Each structure stands twice: as C-alpha cells, then as structure tokens.
C-alpha cells in the first residue's frame, strides 16, 4: 500500500502556487485541471502542468494530475498533458462505474505506448463523490490494477445528495464506511475528502481523526497549512511505534517457542494484535523513507 | 421532485379530524385506512375517505390514502375507495419487494381505466419499515415510475428489528442512509418517519434536522402542531435563498465570460456549489407556489 | 430464536477456568481452542475440552467450542474434539464465505453420523470479524440451517481494517448494522463482540447498550464479572414485562372486539407495538426457564 497521508491540490493555472508547492511536506501533489481551473484557462493550465511535471523539480513527491471527468470533452487533452514519466497517477473525479475506469485505462495505455512508458505506469485515484458513485463502490473497487486508492469527495457528495455539508460529516458516514472497507478489501489506500474551512484547525483535526478511525490512510488537502496536522494524525506516534516493536519482538519469540500468544506489559498479544503491530511498523518505515527523501532534497537545494 | 415537506396522517374513521384537516398548512394529507383504523371500522373509513377525497374540499393539498399492506386481504377494497381524480397517490405500508409494487400497479391500472383516469394518475409512496424492506431498498427504488418517494417507518422498523425506538434514532441510521441515497439516485423524495411523542417539540426538531442532513426532504407528521416546525426545517431560510440568488447570478455571469468558478463574498463558487444554489432556488419557488395556493384558498373561504 | 445473552469464553487449556466455569451464570460457555491456546498446547486443549463437554457437568449451559478457522489445518482435529451429544454448537472464527460454512457442515455431518448423533445436531455460530466477512454478511446469513446466530468480532475487524479499536466503536457501526439486520432477517441471534477492557465496567455497559439498540440479543464475554451486567442489559426490566403483559392483554381483548388498536395508559397500541410486547414476553419466559435450570442445578449441588 502506497504512503499517501497528504495529497495537496495545486491549481494548474497558478504559477506561484505551482512553484511554492516544491517546498511543502506533503506525500503527494495533485496538479488540478478540474474545478480550480475556469474553462477559458484549461489550455494554459495544461501547458503549465505539463511543464511542471516534466521539469524534474518535484522528485520527492508522488505527482498526480486531476483531470476533468469522463463525462466532459476535456479529458483527452487533459490526459495528453498529464501522462509522463514523472507522473505517478491521475486523479479521476466523479467516478461512478467500472466501465468508465476501463475506458480511461485504454486512453492511458495509448499514451503510455506512444511515450515509451511501461504499460500501467500511470495509476488512477478515483474520487467517489456522487450518490451513484457511493452506491457503486463495490464495482469501482478492484476494477483495475491501476487503482492506487479510493478517495472520498464530501463536498460534491453533499451537493449531489442535496444537503449542506455538515461540520461533523453526518451525511458522509455511510459513504466513508463503504469506501474504507472496499479500499481495504482490495488493498488500496482510502483517501479522505478535503476539509474546506482553511481557518478551522480544530475542525480539520477532528475530521482527519474520524477518517483515520474509519480506516482512511490519508486526506486531500487544499492549503499548505493543513499538511502538518494531517501528516501528524496519519503518522503513528512514537509510543505506538515503540509498542509495536515490543509486540513484534515478543510475538516472534513466542512463535519460535511454538506459542500463539504472549503477554506484553501485562496485556495478552495474539495474532490479530501482532498483525496490527507489524502494520504500524511498515507504515512507520515508509514514513521514515519519505522523510529522508524530503530532507535529502532540502539539503541538496542549499 | 415533488414538494412534500409535511404529510399529515388523518385517521380515515374520524370525521372531525377529516374536517379539521382542511385548514392545516401541510403540503400533503394522508387519509389513513391502515393502523389508525380498527378492523370493524375499515368499511366505514373507506366510505368517509372516499367522500372526503371526492368532495373537492382539499384543493391545495396533495392527497394520499394509506391503504393496508399487500399481505392483507384489505387492499383491493382500500384501493377501490382510494383511487380517484383528486387523489395524488397511495401510501403503501410495509413495502418489501419490487414485485409487490408491480402487483399494486396492476390493481391501480385496472381502476384508473374503469374511472377514465390517465394511466399512472395514482402515484405510490412506499413505506420502508421492515428489516427486509431496508435490505431490499435497492430493488424497491426506481422499480416503477409511479413512485413519488421513499418513506421510512422508524416505529415499525424498530419493532421488526426487535428493539425499542430510541430518541436519537441510533437503530435507524443505516436504514435512513440507504433510503436517502436510493431516493436521490432515482430522483424521488425521501420522506422521514413520524415522530410519535407529540409533546416533545425539541425531539421533533432534532429528529427532522437529522433527517434533513441525511438527505430527506420531508417528514410524516401525526398532529397539526408538528406541521409548522417541520415545514420550517425543510424550507430554506431567507439568508439561504438570498445567498443562492447571489451565487446563481454570479456564476451565470462567470459562465458567460467562459469561467468555471467565481468568488462570491470572498468564497470560491464552482460547479457543485452553483448546482446546490440552483437546487435551493427551485425548492424555494415550489414552496412559494404552494403557499400562494394555500393563501388563495383561505381568502376564497372568507 | 435461542436465548444467548452471555457467551463466556473459557480457554481450552486452563483446567482451573474450565472447572470454575461450572458455577457462572452465563447462558452459554465457549471452550476456546483458537486464539487463547498457543500452538504447542492445541492437542492438550482438545483433550481437556473433549473431556469437559463429555462430562455432563455443564447441564444448564449451551456449550460451544470455538475451533480454529477453516484456513488453518487445525480444524479437523478441533472438530473431532468438539462434536458430541452435549455440545450445542461450534463457534467458527473469521467466517467469510457461505462456501466455507458448507464445507464445515460436511465435516460436522461426517462426525455426527459416526457418533450416531442426529444430522444437524451441531449448530454453527460464525464470527464475522474481517473486512471481507462484513462485506459478505448477506451471503453468510441464512446460508445454512445450522446457523444459530451471527457474531461480531470487533477486535479482529479493527485490526483487519488497519485501525485501533475505539471505545465508542465508531469503526464498528456499519458492520454491526449489517450483522444485526441480516441476523434478524434470517431469524437468528445477533451476538456482539467481546469488550476487552475487563476493568472498565462503564465502557462494557455502554458497549452492550449500543449493541442492544442496534438489534443484538447478546454478547461474547471474556471474564465472569462481565456476565451480570450483560445479562441485565439483555434482560427486559420488570416494568417492561409488566407493560408488555398489559399491552398484550388489552390488545387481545381489542382484537376479540374486532378492533386493531387500543389505548393502554393513555397511549395508542397498534399491531407493531403489540408485536413488540409479545416479543418481550417470549424473551422474559425464556430467561425465566433458563434461570430455573440454573437454580435447580445449584440446589441439587448442595
């Protein structure tokens, strides 16, 4: 499973923000060609994004491009701008059907062949953000090996349902449960929605914590100041990592003795708990590698 | 989508309540032949209801008749009493299968032909109020074009599940999410359950607000005093309408300039937000038309 | 529906606990051959459990044996030890597919025939405790007439989802709703997960109350001190039973008069409420019979 704690949206038509994004500490950037870009600027944005991802200036990020939905006539040109060696994947809004993703796959394949990239090089992160998408999660999940995750779009979902998005996310509970379970079932990352109120730090943290508790591994963010708190919430704490080390070590010794459980600090550790500990350690290691890459990059820029 | 904020149950065997209902401000009346009417009075109730709906005295309401469930032998006579020119639809309790609704459709069709009414004149509002009904919502929703909505019956659902209905509605969260999503998917109104405690104004409001947040557009009510608060909750506020007007106007200007987003009062408005605003304006207009009809009726009665 | 308010886990390799379990007031005992027993002690545990269930010393309990999952190679030997005249059923962990249960059925059948037991003597209580199991509840429920219930395993589920189990059970809401509804649909008992923190009485009670509200009828327990509070929560109160008696009596008189509803203490009682009252009385009677058996046993031991 890929490390995708924070995915920062960067408007594809804003040179300053594209430049500034180089220095942020997100796990991924999403250059946006969709909602942030007015129709009149789509062509300009495609050029800017294409140049940015081709520049090699974002080596320590997973780079995504959010293209326009399959139902628009903008998608082919968007993909033309998006697909490339440095691009980890595309973010596909308003995902509703497995067939739609199969269609996008063919369009990607054609471009990958033309550019001499390995087939399947470009991953897909679909955003489930319509009523139909939510009710079709079971068919979207696992429909293609390009899928790297399933993201939830709370704002558009609320609109499509005809309600105002609530701070507590009442209306999103069922969609989130569906997305988290199917992501886990198919071994991909569940990515939570943006939190739109940039000034509401407490709301952001509550929002991210709830998502984590429901099984999400990361969150879309729309402002650099949201990166630190979200990274923090989706990163295991030092105590957790310490606990996981103890548990894994104790459990491995127990297994070597032919035992299926062991006491750690007075608490019984059995297979499921040992698995959870291993999961935590793998996550901590991925985070540490990512942090090294960021630091190396920052050093080399000095 | 029809305007159905409040649907008031009127016992079919109570002449005073049938009379009194003429003056209430609900969007719809439901003359009840089911739970409110003891077996010994079903025939009397049918006559009273048939007379009431035939009288032309309820011109500004959508008139429904709640018939007995398909599993009873009471349904054919109920439909005989219910179907008529002034009757907007029937409320079908304990809906569980698409097949059941297809059966009711044929019974309605036969009566409509006999009475010279347009085929499909009589709409159906099924109440999902059993465990099986909840688990079959996906097959009930959209199974017939007569469907005008999907209603939730929290009391019977709790009983069928074997629990006491809670004030917070914990046990109803999953059913409500299912009903709201499938209603929206199929373009019909999600109608929330009755709130039985007539004296508990605060409980009623919380209950209605939760339903609204989950995507419901209206609520069954059992007492005239419940109408005003429920209407209010399912009516957009003046500020909301004002905001929606601003947003739609600004967005249309932006679109004319070839732009896909615009700032309104310092906040970005993109396509989903503009759609939500249009939705609010359409609702406000439907409410204003309904209110004019009520007022005209009250004037002409003076 | 069987009475299964409390099912106490008893480690199969702990003679003292096996002995002590004779005196507890749970509705069922589950002798555990799975998570509580290290690999090196599986054989010993099977002998101890086989002896205990064969002893006839647990006459007033429903006796279960938790076997190891179908995916292990331990299951055939576990079933050899488990199946017997006094054993009410097996608890099957990590249930994920109807096919798996059909396989276990065949293994049980072979043993029942060999032992001269009636075919189907051994019931199955599957534990749904993986993401896949939760997403497959609709196929597991009702897949075989041996099923006596559906149990939820919150700890393993949280681990499989990759989260830490929360005290409020946020991550378990959707799984619990699914399990409760499908259990009810197929007429079997929904059994809630263990609550691991043995010292947290308040947490246990909140946990059990939430489960009850969602439609669960009982709970797995891991310590004798958890039995009394959980039994209490899943037992109707005296007032509830008194109310149910009044309601059923009044409703039967009303029915005899040809009426479908009646006022009891000023509140309207219709068919769904009368059904709920009957349900409560049946539960109270089953509890009373169980308590008599326990008391008779305690008397005869004096």
Attribute tags:
homotrimer, 302 residues, alpha/beta, TIM Barrel, 2 domains, eight-stranded parallel β-barrel, two-stranded antiparallel ribbon, globular
Structural description of this entry:
The structure is a homotrimer of 302-residue chains. By secondary structure, chain A is of the alpha/beta class. Chain A folds into two domains: 6-233, Alpha-Beta Barrel (TIM Barrel), CATH 3.20.20.60; 238-301. Helices cover 48% and strands 15% of the residues of chain A. Chain A contains twelve helices and ten strands. The first copy, chain A, has helices at 15-20, 42-54, 75-82, 98-115, 131-135, 137-140, 154-161, 173-185, 201-214, 227-233, 238-256, 271-301; strands at 6-11, 28-32, 62-66, 87-92, 123-128, 149-152, 189-192, 218-221, 262-264, 267-269. Chain A has an eight-stranded parallel β-barrel, surrounded by four helices. A two-stranded antiparallel sheet of chain A has the order 9-10. In chain A, helix 2 (42-54) packs parallel to helix 3 (75-82). Chains in contact: A-B, A-C, B-C. Chain A binds chain B through residues 35-40, 131-132, 134-135, 155-156, 158-164, 166, 170-171, 173-174, and chain B through 138, 173-174, 177-178, 180-182, 184-185, 210, 212-215, 217, 254, 257-261, 270-273, 275-276, 279.
The CATH class of the largest domain in chain A turns out to be Alpha Beta
The quaternary structure here is homotrimer
State the order of secondary-structure elements of chain A, H for helix, E for strand: EHEHEHEHEHHEHHEHEHHEEH
Number of strands of chain A: 10
Rg calc of chain A: 20 Å
Contiguous runs where pLDDT drops below 50 for at least 5 residues of chain A: none
Q: What is the correct CATH architecture of the largest domain in chain A?
A: Alpha-Beta Barrel
How many domains make up the coordinates of chain A?
Answer: 2
Q: What is the share of helical residues of chain A?
A: 40-55%
CATH topology of the largest domain in chain A: TIM Barrel
CATH superfamily of the largest domain in chain A: Phosphoenolpyruvate-binding domains
Biggest sheet strand line-up of chain A: 1-2-3-4-5-6-7-8
User: In terms of structural class, how would the helical and strand content of chain A be classed?
Assistant: alpha/beta
Largest interface: A-B, 24 and 29 residues
């Amino acid at each position: 499973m890929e490390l995708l704690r924070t995915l920062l949206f960067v408007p594809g038509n804003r040179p300053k923000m594209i430049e500034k994004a180089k220095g942020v500490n997100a796990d991924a950037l999403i250059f946006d060609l969709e909602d942030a870009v007015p129709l009149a600027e789509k062509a300009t944005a495609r050029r800017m994004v294409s140049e940015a991802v081709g520049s090699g200036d974002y080596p320590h990020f997973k780079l995504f491009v959010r293209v326009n939905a399959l139902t628009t006539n903008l998608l082919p040109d968007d993909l033309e701008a998006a697909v490339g060696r440095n691009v980890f994947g595309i973010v596909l809004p308003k995902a509703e059907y497995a067939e739609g993703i199969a269609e996008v796959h063919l369009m990607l394949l054609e471009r990958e062949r033309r550019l001499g990239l390995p087939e399947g090089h470009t991953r897909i992160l679909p955003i489930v953000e319509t009523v139909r998408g939510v009710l079709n999660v079971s068919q979207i999940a696992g429909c293609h090996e390009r899928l790297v995750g399933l993201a939830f779009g709370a704002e558009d979902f609320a609109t499509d349902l005809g309600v105002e998005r609530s701070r507590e996310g009442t209306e999103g509970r069922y969609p989130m449960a569906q997305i988290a379970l199917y992501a886990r079932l198919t071994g991909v990352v569940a990515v939570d929605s943006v939190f739109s109120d940039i000034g509401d730090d407490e709301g952001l943290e509550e929002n991210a914590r709830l998502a984590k508790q429901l099984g999400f591994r990361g969150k879309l963010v729309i402002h650099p100041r949201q990166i630190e708190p979200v990274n923090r919430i989706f990163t295991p704490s030092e105590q957790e990592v310490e606990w996981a080390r103890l548990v894994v070590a104790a459990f491995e010794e127990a297994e070597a003795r032919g035992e299926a459980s062991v006491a750690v600090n007075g608490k019984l550790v059995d297979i499921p708990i040992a698995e959870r500990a291993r999961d935590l350690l793998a996550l901590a290691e991925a985070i540490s590698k990512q942090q090294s890459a960021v630091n190396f990059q920052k050093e080399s820029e000095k």
